[in-house]
Amino acid sequence: MKKIACYCFVLWSISLSVYAQKTTQRNWLTKAYQQTYANGDAFPGLLNWQKEQNANALKNVANLPDSVKQRILKQAESALSYKWPSLPASLYLDYKITGTRTTYENLVNERRRMLSLLVAGELIENKERFIPQIVNGLWLVLEESTWVAPAHIVVQKEGADLPNIENPYIDLHASSTGLTVATIYNMLSAKFAKYSKVVNGRIVYELNRRLFDPYLKYSFGWMGFKGNSVNNWNTYVNSNTLQAALQVLQPGKKLDSLSAKVLRSTDIFINQYPEDGGCDEGPSYWDMAGGRLIRLLSLLNQVSEGKLNWSDKELLHQIGAYAYKMQISDTYMVNFADAFPTYTQNPESVYQYGVLFKDETLKDYASFLFKARGKQVSGNDITDFLATAAAYGALNNTPAKAPYPLYAALPDLQVFNARTVAGSTKGFFFAAKGGHNAESHNHNDIGNFIVYYDGKPLLIDVGVGTYTSKTFSNRRYELWNVQSQWHNCPTINGVLQKDGRQFAATNFRFSNTAGMAMVAMDIAKAYPATADVQQWERTISLNRTKNTINLTEAIKLNNFKEASELNFITPYAVELKPGKIVFGQTGTAMNYDTNQLEAKVDEQAIDDDRIVKMWGNKIYRIRLITKSKEKTNTLKLAIIASEKK
Length: 645
What we know:
It is built from 19 helices and 21 strands. The protein has 645 residues and is an alpha+beta fold. The strands form five sheets. It has an eight-stranded antiparallel sheet, with no helix packed on it. A five-stranded antiparallel sheet has the order 3-4-5-7-8, with no helix packed on it. A four-stranded antiparallel sheet has the order 9-15-20-19, with no helix packed on it. The radius of gyration is 26 Å and the shape is elongated. It starts with a helix and ends in a 5-residue tail after the last strand. The model is unreliable at 1-19 (pLDDT under 50).
């Protein structure tokens, strides 16, 4: 499954989400469900809905452009000769022994990708030519000891090891595989029945054993019932589980109980969500969080024949709007923590938000994303293939437009961004964050900010490297790219920021006028006591009239121990001049006071494939080192657009 392979291996239990979130008891989903189905017997028209889903899906596939269908059909034909790989025990144990997760996961994902392509080919051609090879792949999936990833099986009592099938667990992979299997069953069960009398029964048995029954029996941490924080695991697994159940189960007590529990769990996710609709995991995780939430909401609206409808909930609307509020230019996105700097959200999910809330801006943005992806329709995930096919006409015919708002303020998340010109990528763009150092996918980055000029990166957040066992262990902050010194943050008295909920920004505030945008915060409490800092008031402002970004640091130390450093990370080789740092050929520079600061530059070679893909083989860290030993000081810098390109 391509999406999961790229960015969704996140172990909830050690993902720095152990601190309780602020919770508002909204419980919107559960209340509506209980009111609509007060006597149980939910979704009485389910069987007809299942048939309609099947028929509509076939129509949507048939209506795809011939070029799209022929491309996918060709890929499916290649998969007819695919040799399904073995998954030996030693491969599953690779994570335990070496900490490497990709070897096993890549083969598993390849199995599922080929299976989905074969199914897509059969839905396009409809001649039963692909059925034998589909059953080959499907049977192997049904025979796997577990659908849980090796990195996630650590929750079993045996820890990281081979899976104990007597101790079932549901992770991102298990729910995604379950949905894939359920979707295939819904679309092809009639053809399977002709080919074998056993296949359909085995599918239903395994879905119950691996997904539905464990969901009902256990309270997994990502469900949130223990008062813990939840993240994208919650909505991703809940949405997948409910969609699978609605395609396979019949109306009755089991479906009633499962649906009710899914909604109670998803309510916890919504209850913990800030009023500003901000996703602390970043735009590239939004697909798994808010993007999956809208699938669940839309699904419930459909299967309830419109009785379940949350279009009056503005918070849910803002969860959708977050997607475009974090866009910088084209595919560049604000990428604090583990988020990626370049990404396009799932157009179908964004469009569904536009439909639910009658928001033309969201619809236009969804079309922009669709066209930015080259109107791609992929057969690599059969569920996503059908969802895209259903939305293809609307996405293709809607005007494509990125809104590029003049500014976006998320006071609860403590993120603020602003640009020089609304609706344009010209000039400066900056984004800054406060928050705390126990956010989901946390980096120690309080006070971090990024700067783009004419839509291109200038000061960057390096982002996340390839996930290993170390990434979500107690050794996470040994990774250089999650430390504050490799963000655009100061090192105070030689001390770095510390991880933990108590290490946070205070007095976060912002403002915006036609000529000026400003964000300010005190980041002193992001550092441990050894930093001996009383106040570090950081103010970042965009002067739209002068086309400059200004940084002011108002400092009060309890004691001077050693020189502090202002760190700035850039992908450009810089030129040092007296009082000026020139960023390559970008036409921009940073001015500073040589009486206050000394400039040095470090070159950081990159050997992580994921970071190389984002920023190349090296990045640069500018260190502006304080000269004064005074405990009180004010530093001022300006990023200007005056150098000739």
